[in-house]
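#onboarding

Welcome to the new folks! Below is a worked example of what a typical request in this channel looks like: someone posts a single protein sequence, and someone else replies with the predicted structure as tokens. Don't worry about understanding the tokens yet, we'll cover that in week two.

Example request:
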Amino acid sequence: MAGAMMTAVSRSGANQWHAAAYEYLRNSALDARNFFDSPRDPIPPFRRNQFGGLLSGPLRRNKSFFLLNYEG
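Example response:
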């Protein structure tokens, strides 16, 4: 399955450096049993970890800017 994401920005950048980092972790520790699961079987394992970071700043002051984003 293929997908794409495109973003268009009409605003100018900033002359300061900006950075952000995040992590989202979800597992089956607090999940309830599915209606169709057998009561004798354990809860199926589920683990999802999404992380990333963003870095932006000026290439030339008041002229050109960059933005770098990563998700994994």
